Amino acid sequence: MKEDFLILIVDDSRMNRIVLSKSLTHEGYDFIEAENADVALKILEYRKPELILLDVVMPEMSGFDLCRLLKQQESTREIPIIFITTLDSPEDKIRGLELGAVDFITKPFNTAEILARVRTQVTLRRMYRTILETNQRIAKDLETARQIQRNLLPAQEGTIFGKQIAFEYVYIPCDELGGDFFDIYQISDNKLLFYILDVSGHGVASSLITIFTKMFFSVHSQSEDDPCHLLHRLNQQFFRERLTEKYLTIFLGILDLQKNLLTWSSAGQSVAPILYTDDYEEILTMHSFPIGLIESASYVNATCVFPPGASLLMYSDGVTDICIGDGIPIFEEQSLVHYIHTHKSPDNHSMVSSLSSYINHLARTDDFPDDITIFLLRRL
């Protein structure tokens, strides 16, 4: 409907306003008139037109000055302006366009030409409305999805297994929806399962893969407590479900509290978790293929002692991708081990907070190029 497209005519010539208003009425547009800039500003306080037809040469405040003022105000800067003026030098046209006008028509004007220019702006404005409404809807949906994804993470901090295991984490997605994910839960009287994963890319598709993976482990860990077999089944499931436009890297561990034994496997993990106690640090590294990359990929287990007092620091490659001057990474495996060696704390929160603060201090930003996840598990 053209009636929902309000046009403001600003011209000190009553005759020009009459000619323009008749032409716009004939075309079915709604309009409102102002005889000078002051009247136009008063109108704009309570009415927001979709387009302004603006004369340049007016008493007191010129059309150029009014345009400059409107483009400085948040409430009016997006309203398109077409200058209609007797000025016809290239310099005047350039000045008008540099001030933010979308078009420039020279008097005496041809009403057919003006209506053609108006129709163009109507089309562009309605496209802008559609894009704006779509973006607002997408932003709302992304915020809802982001909250759902966050709700699927473990509690911010806590203990499980009768307070025998404590965990803490920092999770900073670089977009509304991240490709990092992690989880921890009890699977039997003596065992708990935990993992940290990183899906290639970011956004909706990557976040859906994280949810799919969480559901997979929730179902299959009830009947399978072998990490390498779980990763093999997950890889096969990726190919069956045709999810291979994405791939993921993952570290998966099953801790047997009765035996003080951690059994773990890794799929393409580019960064290795660090197991440490008061006396030593150990990097849990393994070479293997990511999930969803090669259908025939196989996975193996490794084991290590995990006694009371031991901690496991897991992190995404977003941590080691952060660089300071000259592209020097803040952390590599050995420098992270050194940091742990010199900053060990018996308190999960203090350890994670100090590591996160150290990264922020050196990076001098909170706008990271990749998801940042730090997940610390400690046996009490």
UniProtKB/TrEMBL annotation:
One of its GO terms (biological process) is phosphorelay signal transduction system. The keyword Phosphoprotein applies. Keywords: Hydrolase, Phosphoprotein. It comes from the Bacteria. The keyword Ubl conjugation does not apply. Coiled coil: none annotated. Residues 6-122 form the Response regulatory domain. GO terms for molecular function: phosphatase activity. The modification 4-aspartylphosphate is found at residue 55. PANTHER family: STAGE II SPORULATION PROTEIN E (PTHR43156:SF2), STAGE II SPORULATION PROTEIN E-RELATED (PTHR43156). This is Response regulator receiver modulated serine phosphatase. It comes from Vecturithrix granuli.
